Amino acid sequence: MRIDIITVLPELLRSPFEHSIMKRAQQKGLLEVITHDLREFGLGKHRQVDDYQYGGGAGMVMMVEPLANCIEHLQQEQKYDEIIYLTPDGEQLNQSISNQLSLKEKLLLICGHYKGIDERIRQNYVTKEISIGDYVLSGGELAAAVLVDSIGRLIPGVLNDETSALFDSFQDDLLAPPVYTRPAEYNGWKVPDILLSGNDAAIDQWRYEQSLERTKIRRPDLFEGDKTTGES
């Protein structure tokens, strides 16, 4: 998978992709993340990428021309499955969206700044708009890093245990069950006996019941249908 990111702060995106799972994904050749400095397409001597908004009001707006030139330059080299704008008023990111996007081959992400981007870019180039939550960040870079991480870890071969991602929280709209590791007893606190039993079927059932209970208590909004029978 290839993911291109348009940003005015490419240095802000270096660290998230130079460590841990995202680094290994790129070293394995399973994921390619390329950042593009929008200022290279800026206008005039100062490489301007923003201007005052028509109609007045506080805050600058990212200009249509630099963004259009950058997008079209990239489209000459790549055919993107989606052009995604990270914005607070986009569709809220969830596991289902990450699952769907992980099946794509080429994505282009646009990181907003200031009061956002000229609406004509959204109308004529953007195919999908995503928010990572009901709050506002200084720019779209951190949101882009979150999106790439949530997608990249789902690519087959990225995680050492390929079944691991299938049991993450929010797969099947359930939170993950409690997890434990060695020692079996510490300071009088014991690991549940069922997890030490070696009975895989019973352990799977326990984990499912724990996921149900945790979801009911912590995220009742996710609890739809009759999940006690595994039906929706």
Structure in words:
By secondary structure, this protein is an alpha/beta fold. The chain folds into two domains: 2-152, SPOUT methyltransferase, trefoil knot domain (Alpha/beta knot, 3-Layer(aba) Sandwich), CATH 3.40.1280; 169-229, Trp Operon Repressor, Chain A. The protein is built from six helices and nine strands; from the N terminus they run βαβββαβαβαβαββα. It has helices at residues 20-27, 64-75, 95-101, 119-124, 141-152, 200-218; strands spanning 2-7, 32-37, 50-52, 60-62, 82-92, 106-111, 128-131, 185-186, 189-190. A five-stranded parallel β-sheet has the order 2-1-6-5-7. A two-stranded antiparallel ribbon has the order 3-4. A two-stranded antiparallel ribbon has the order 8-9. Mean pLDDT is 92; it is low at 226-232.
Topology:
Elements: E1 2-7, H1 20-27, E2 32-37, E3 50-52, E4 60-62, H2 64-75, E5 82-92, H3 95-101, E6 106-111, H4 119-124, E7 128-131, H5 141-152, E8 185-186, E9 189-190, H6 200-218
Provide a quick synopsis of the model:
By secondary structure, the protein is an alpha/beta fold. It has six helices and nine strands.
